[in-house]
């Protein structure tokens, strides 16, 4: 019993850090909205940016496997809490059944995206070369999928170019070696197709909930 306490603490501390980081991400997101100039303002309303934060939780915290998945989920879930809590505290938004639909929807999305990107971050940190390639491709693909949504659905050319550029840059920027970067870029195409399907599913889900 006594010997298990350090293990529990080793598990609990990184997960607590992920939750606190999520609250910070949510609050900073509200601050960024309307503050960043031009097309950069989209970064304050981007699911891809939040996915990158979940990826960072898996990559930077001492977690792997199920714990990495949980860390990513906690970060995104608490980011939702931090964002909507900030709108209530600072913008005095009403809290009622209608306004609670927003956080409920994004908590559901966090429950799906969090494990994916938390695990991807952990694989990026300590996985085999193939695993690192998939992780790099996944984080780049989420930006490219969002770019497709911005271009095809919203017709926002500047924001589309911004997110597409960031997506393509992720593997070269984050890869540890030339081989990592090339494998990550190669993984972008199939993973972007999957990401576009996921983006479409989220779009349809939000339409159904908010109609």
From TrEMBL:
InterPro entries: DUF6518. The chain crosses the membrane at residues 12-31, 43-61, 68-84, 104-124, 133-154, 185-210. Coiled coil: none annotated. It holds the Pfam family DUF6518. Keywords: Membrane, Transmembrane, Transmembrane helix. This is Uncharacterized protein. It comes from Rugosimonospora africana.
């Amino acid at each position: 019993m006594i010997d298990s306490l350090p293990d529990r603490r080793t598990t609990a501390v990184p997960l607590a850090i992920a939750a606190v980081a999520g609250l910070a991400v949510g609050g900073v997101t509200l601050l960024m909205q309307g503050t960043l100039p031009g097309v950069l303002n989209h970064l304050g309303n981007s699911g891809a940016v939040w996915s990158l934060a979940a990826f960072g939780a898996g990559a930077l915290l001492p977690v792997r496997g199920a714990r990495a998945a949980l860390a990513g989920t906690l970060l995104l879930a608490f980011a939702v809490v931090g964002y909507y809590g900030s709108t209530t505290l600072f913008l005095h938004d009403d809290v009622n059944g209608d306004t609670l639909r927003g956080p409920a929807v994004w908590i559901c999305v966090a429950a799906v995206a969090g494990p994916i990107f938390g695990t991807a971050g952990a694989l990026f940190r300590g996985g085999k070369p193939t695993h690192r390639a998939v992780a790099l491709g996944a984080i780049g693909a989420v930006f490219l999928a969002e770019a497709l949504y911005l271009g095809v659905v919203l017709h926002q050319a500047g924001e589309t170019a911004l997110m597409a550029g960031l997506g393509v840059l992720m593997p070269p920027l984050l890869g540890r070696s030339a081989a990592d970067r090339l494998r990550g870029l190669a993984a972008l195409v199939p993973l972007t197709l999957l990401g576009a399907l996921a983006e479409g599913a989220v779009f349809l889900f939000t339409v159904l909930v908010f109609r």
